[in-house]
């Protein structure tokens, strides 16, 4: 696991110096504290292939495999292919055997060398052969171009900026911002999307002119033509007709092999264990594949509603793991500046806080940790899918269903605690007049369309692009074609919420603490299998993960399968009426904040007042606004 940065240019006036390249690379030193390297070569007027563009590749290394020989940047024998990459190629041993059979000679035992030799043979088609989590940059001298590629499910981030004939890239935004002349112009459309989703969706970033490479895509640039191509396009409309027995057998085989591949490491390795189904299954499978006790790590909080350590302890005892349990009292005042600095753009998922703490404490014992991310999206584990199923049944009733929804809005309260049953019932009924995809967005939004309209200043609205943030979710939703709404919602989450929120959250929190996090559920073979599964093998008896329980039910205590799902979060509601109240009010109502011209001051004050008086739980919305303002102060105000 590492950090990469670099530049490409075809004219001398856009050259990026070795000093700037070093600065870009050093800005992400936390991602790779063990080693660093750069390859810098100015533009050449008379090279072996004509005029050769200038290239700079930078790398920071967290050593995991081939500790002595895995230095980057790394080239092939004649130095016509150079690469830097962040992540792991888990099937590198089988790829290496194939390449050796084709006549390639290897100088190291690292997965990095597989990339350069496979690229020699396959070019950009090499990305289709990698099973892993990766962000890769390749200098292809023969074709005088830079190539960037990102893994299928967006586990590793990759940012880029193209201006004229120059391309800059980095594992984090902060690397690109080190280059001279990169403007920090905030994109109003990105703010609109952020307040909708709690993250800025790809390919956009918070800054105009800087982009995220979407998951499952590669990019080529030769100084004139920029091309972004999707190399992973599973058919979301196709549904398998596997029997339950066959689906069970295939799931066990795929999941076991995925965990096996992710146990490759030359450093200490363990697993996050929350006590939920997904992380517990990862640990149970690790136990089957290794002779040594599995090291597991859990984090607990004083507030009972946010503490899962009793379940994690139960699983650890059941599986006989070497369990480490950390009890912490989250200090929002202390951790906020760290989060704002490391998450280069606004990210309002407050579960970044416990993710940060568990990563920090796990790193004291191991360098690699496996986690259960992805199980909810692949096997329909979120509670919100219950609403999707109920809404689909009401839709089938036609006018009768719409009448039931209108009656619900009349009798249910619009206010009250955000997660109360009555409040949820009102939100459900309120959204029933919308299309299934628009309705789902209304349920998951931090600020839905109505609330954003009430919040925005007229001058800010005038700056917004015509594009609707809804398009991002809708484009994912419609990929399933005529399949059922549960499948549409869960697979839309797989390609939106998972890469943009969950994977970003985990990558930044883990890498800030020099910890590699591996996610067995996100093996692309397992994802393709789950994409094809019919809803009946995921959802049964009002609950998700039916096939997981059918396949692995005997590996975990029954209470783990039957327990109520608990979010991985922090008590924002309480914080904003206690230790964070003063900071929240002072920040959001400050002249600095209100003068930005984004929001109507009266609307911000109303949110604060309603939350203070316990009329509404606006904690998620207030957190989003607080993060946005503190981000501005860290990344924009001081750099104008």
From TrEMBL:
<dbReference type="GO" id="GO:0004066">
    <property type="term" value="F:asparagine synthase (glutamine-hydrolyzing) activity"/>
</dbReference>
<comment type="pathway">
    <text>Amino-acid biosynthesis; L-asparagine biosynthesis; L-asparagine from L-aspartate (L-Gln route): step 1/1.</text>
</comment>
<dbReference type="GO" id="GO:0005524">
    <property type="term" value="F:ATP binding"/>
</dbReference>
<dbReference type="InterPro" id="IPR033738">
    <property type="entry name" value="AsnB_N"/>
</dbReference>
<feature type="domain" description="Glutamine amidotransferase type-2">
    <location>
        <begin position="2"/>
        <end position="224"/>
    </location>
</feature>
<feature type="site" description="Important for beta-aspartyl-AMP intermediate formation">
    <location>
        <position position="373"/>
    </location>
</feature>
<feature type="active site" description="For GATase activity">
    <location>
        <position position="2"/>
    </location>
</feature>
<keyword id="KW-0315">Glutamine amidotransferase</keyword>
<feature type="binding site">
    <location>
        <begin position="371"/>
        <end position="372"/>
    </location>
    <ligand>
        <name>ATP</name>
    </ligand>
</feature>
<feature type="binding site">
    <location>
        <position position="111"/>
    </location>
    <ligand>
        <name>L-glutamine</name>
    </ligand>
</feature>
<dbReference type="InterPro" id="IPR017932">
    <property type="entry name" value="GATase_2_dom"/>
</dbReference>
<protein>
    <recommendedName>
        <fullName>asparagine synthase (glutamine-hydrolyzing)</fullName>
        <ecNumber>6.3.5.4</ecNumber>
    </recommendedName>
</protein>
<dbReference type="InterPro" id="IPR006426">
    <property type="entry name" value="Asn_synth_AEB"/>
</dbReference>
<keyword id="KW-0547">Nucleotide-binding</keyword>
<dbReference type="GO" id="GO:0005829">
    <property type="term" value="C:cytosol"/>
</dbReference>
<feature type="binding site">
    <location>
        <position position="299"/>
    </location>
    <ligand>
        <name>ATP</name>
    </ligand>
</feature>
<dbReference type="InterPro" id="IPR001962">
    <property type="entry name" value="Asn_synthase"/>
</dbReference>
<keyword id="KW-0028">Amino-acid biosynthesis</keyword>
<keyword id="KW-0061">Asparagine biosynthesis</keyword>
<keyword id="KW-0067">ATP-binding</keyword>
<comment type="similarity">
    <text>Belongs to the asparagine synthetase family.</text>
</comment>
<dbReference type="Pfam" id="PF00733">
    <property type="entry name" value="Asn_synthase"/>
</dbReference>
<dbReference type="InterPro" id="IPR014729">
    <property type="entry name" value="Rossmann-like_a/b/a_fold"/>
</dbReference>
<dbReference type="Pfam" id="PF13537">
    <property type="entry name" value="GATase_7"/>
</dbReference>
<dbReference type="GO" id="GO:0006529">
    <property type="term" value="P:asparagine biosynthetic process"/>
</dbReference>
<dbReference type="InterPro" id="IPR051786">
    <property type="entry name" value="ASN_synthetase/amidase"/>
</dbReference>
<dbReference type="InterPro" id="IPR029055">
    <property type="entry name" value="Ntn_hydrolases_N"/>
</dbReference>
């Amino acid at each position: 696991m590492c950090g990469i940065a670099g530049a490409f240019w075809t004219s001398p006036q856009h050259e990026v110096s070795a000093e700037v390249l070093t600065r870009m690379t050093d800005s992400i030193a936390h991602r790779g504290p063990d080693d660093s390297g750069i390859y810098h070569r100015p533009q050449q007027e008379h090279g072996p292939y004509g005029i050769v563009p200038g290239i700079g590749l930078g790398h920071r290394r967290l050593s995991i495999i081939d500790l002595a020989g895995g230095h980057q940047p790394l080239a092939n024998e004649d130095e016509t292919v150079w690469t830097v990459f962040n992540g792991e190629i888990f099937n590198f041993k089988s790829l290496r055997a194939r390449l050796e059979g084709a006549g390639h000679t290897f100088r190291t035992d690292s997965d990095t060398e597989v990339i350069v030799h496979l690229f020699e043979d396959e070019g950009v088609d090499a990305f289709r052969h990698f099973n892993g989590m990766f962000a890769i940059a390749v200098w292809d001298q023969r074709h005088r171009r830079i190539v960037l590629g990102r893994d299928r499910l967006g586990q590793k981030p990759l940012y880029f900026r193209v201006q004229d004939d120059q391309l800059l890239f980095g594992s984090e935004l902060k690397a690109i911002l080190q280059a001279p002349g990169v403007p920090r112009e905030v994109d109003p459309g990105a703010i609109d999307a952020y307040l909708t989703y709690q993250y800025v969706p790809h390919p956009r970033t918070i800054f105009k002119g800087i982009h995220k490479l979407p998951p499952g895509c590669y990019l080529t640039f030769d100084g004139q033509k920029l091309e972004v191509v999707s190399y992973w396009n599973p058919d979301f409309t196709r549904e398998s007709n596997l029997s339950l027995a066959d689906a069970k057998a295939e799931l066990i085989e795929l999941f076991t092999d995925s965990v096996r591949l992710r146990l490759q490491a030359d450093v200490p390795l363990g697993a996050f264990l929350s006590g939920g189904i997904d992380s517990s299954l990862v640990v149970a499978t690790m136990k089957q594949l290794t002779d040594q006790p599995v090291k597991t790590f859990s984090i607990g909080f004083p507030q009972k509603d946010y503490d899962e350590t009793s379940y994690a302890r139960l699983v650890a005892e059941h599986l006989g793991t070497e369990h480490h349990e950390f009890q912490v009292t989250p200090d929002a005042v202390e951790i906020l500046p760290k989060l704002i600095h490391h998450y280069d753009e606004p990210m309002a998922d407050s579960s970044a806080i416990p993710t940060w703490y568990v990563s920090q404490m796990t790193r004291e014992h191991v360098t690699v940790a496996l986690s259960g991310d992805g199980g909810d999206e692949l096997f329909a584990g979120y509670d919100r899918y219950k609403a999707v199923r109920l809404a689909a049944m009401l839709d089938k009733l036609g006018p009768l269903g719409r009448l039931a929804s209108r009656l619900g809005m009349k009798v249910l309260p619009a206010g009250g605690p955000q997660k109360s049953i009555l409040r949820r019932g009102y939100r459900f009924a309120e959204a029933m007049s919308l299309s299934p995809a628009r309705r789902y967005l209304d349920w998951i939004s931090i600020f839905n369309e109505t609330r954003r309209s009430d919040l925005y200043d007229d001058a800010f609205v005038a700056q917004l692009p015509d594009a609707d943030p809804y398009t991002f979710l809708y484009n994912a939703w419609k990929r399933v074609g005529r399949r059922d709404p549960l499948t549409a919602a869960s697979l839309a989450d797989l390609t939106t919420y998972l890469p943009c929120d969950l994977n970003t959250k985990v990558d930044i929190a883990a890498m800030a603490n020099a910890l590699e996090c591996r996610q067995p559920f996100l093996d692309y073979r397992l994802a393709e299998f789950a994409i094809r599964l019919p809803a009946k093998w995921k959802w049964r008896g009002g609950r998700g993960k039916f096939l997981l329980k059918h396949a692995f039910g005997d590996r975990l205590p029954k209470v783990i399968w039957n327990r109520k799902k608990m979010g991985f979060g922090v008590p924002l509601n309480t914080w904003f009426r206690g230790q964070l109240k003063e900071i929240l009010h002072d920040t959001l109502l400050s002249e600095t904040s209100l003068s930005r011209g984004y929001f109507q001051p009266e609307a911000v004050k109303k949110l604060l007042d309603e939350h203070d008086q316990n009329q509404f739980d606006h904690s998620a919305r207030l957190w989003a606004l607080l993060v946005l303002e503190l981000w501005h102060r860290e990344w924009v105000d001081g750099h104008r």
